[in-house]
Fold this protein.
Amino acid sequence: MSAEPKLLAQVIGFLPEAKTLVDFAESSLGPINSATLMAANLKTKELVDNISKPELRRKFEEGLKPYIVGGELKITIDGLFNYIADEFLPYVNETGNGAVSVIGRLNEEIILRALRNSGLTEGADFQRTGKQSDGDIIVSRQSGTKKNLYVEVKSYHARERLLRGLTDIAHPEKVGVGFFRDPAEFNAQRTQTLINSQAWAIYIPEDTYLSIAPLAKSMTTSRQDKFYRPLAMFVDDMVSYSKLGELSPFRL
């Protein structure tokens, strides 16, 4: 699969490593960059769904066969809950068919691939971390006094995990980035709480960003930059940081 990522379009029931899934996305999208981060996310999610869902559905329906009458499911809420908790979820965990755990690694790999494609050098300009509450990625300025920017990567929902992740990073130079789908997670009250974590910015997909309430979208950091930034700015901002030790201004 690693040698021929295009074969993944013909596979059901086997999820390869995140790198191979991103290779598949690039085989149709070209090298991932600022403009194609969200497209890569959608392409890889579609692939994960196509690989994992048919087998999960087969197993799910197989266990419910005794309760299907005339094409309709006849089961109590307690019965359905017990089946999912006692049979279906253990099957998902035991077979390693947990697409949810893959998604987190996959979205991080998409971000890393875009940084590699930008010309930044892995190991010098940026590195994967995830240890000691330093976020998931560190971007470094090499010239002059070395400075680090700590990046917290999340998938589709911010919930409390984004705030907790940013708060756990002890350094003031930090940002969050994700493929967030729900603009309601970024209301004005929530925005102020995130700003209080001392993060410099949160990068959000364009369609979600455009749907954030104007009051929340207009809120700024202590640096007088808009707190929320479109996802398409992320890679260019990381390149800027690696050269200057600062994010590009964003005050529109």
In short: The beta strands are 68-69, 72-73, 126-128, 137-141, 147-154, 174-178, 201-204, 228-230. The mean pLDDT is 89. The CA atoms of residues 112 and 161 lie 20 Å apart. The two ends are 45 Å apart (CA to CA).
